[in-house]
Amino acid sequence: MDLISREEARAAGAKRFFTGAPCPYGHTAERFVINNRCVECAKASGRATFAKDPDRIRQLQRESYLRHREKQLLEAKRYRESEKGREKIKAWAARNADRFPGYVAKYRENHRDELLQRGREAYKKNREKHLAYAKVYREKKRASGEKTVRARKFEPDREMRNLIFRRFRAKKMGAAGDHTVYDVARLLESQKHLCVYCKTNVKYGYHVDHITPLARGGSNGPENIQILCPRCNVRKRDKTHDEFIDFLRNVGF
Prior knowledge:
Layout: H1 6-12, E1 16-17, E2 31-32, H2 39-52, H3 54-67, H4 69-81, H5 83-95, H6 103-110, H7 112-125, H8 127-144, H9 149-153, H10 158-172, H11 181-190, E3 207-210, E4 225-228, H12 230-236, H13 241-250
Antiparallel strand pairs: 1-2, 3-4
Helix pairs in contact: 2-3, 4-5
C-alpha cells in the first residue's frame, strides 16, 4: 500500500490516506481523510452497532439506499471500473475459484422464470434502446468475424440440447414434472456411469430414459428418469421398466 499523507490525499480528492503509523488501538490501516478515523476501527464500531439492533440498522440502510440509489449505483460503477476495484474483483475470484465456476449457471437454472419475466419487462420498457444496442453489437461482431451470443445459442452442449428436446416432448404430451442438467449429472454419479440394465460404461455416450414412458403417463421429473446406454434405450422404446426386464429375459439376456 502506497504511503500518502492526509494533506496529499485531500489535495488529490481521495477519501482515505495511509501513513503506515498505527492507530491508538494498534491497527496499521488506512484512515478517512474527513475525520482521521482508522478504517478498521470504523468497521469494528459498525459491527458492534449492528449486533445491538440488526433489524433497525437494516431498515435504515434500505431507506438510505432508496434515497440515494442513483448516486450509489454511479459510485459502485466507478469503483468497479477503477484499477483498485478491478484488482479487488480479481482477488475475490481467485479466493473463490473452487465455487465460482458454475455459480451463474446454477442461479439462472434455479431462477429461470423470474429472470425471463424481468428480461421481458426491461425490454418493453427500453425497447428502442435495446434495438439500437443490438444493431451496434451485431455490426461490431460482424466486423470482427466473431459469432454473436444469439448465434452461439444454436450450438449448445449436447446435454443441454437434449434437455430442451425432452422438455419440448413432455410439454407436447402434457407430462408433469421437470428435471435439470444437474439432475442428470447426479444420476450419472449415482449410477457410476453405468447403464441400468447391461452395466455398460456410458462415460462417452448415454441416453436419458423415462422409466415410465411419457406416452404412457410418465412424468418428466427426476424421479422418473434413468441413464441407459444407447442400445438399451433404443430396445426399450415405450416399454415400462418391468416390461423391459421381461423382454430381456425372453431374449436370453
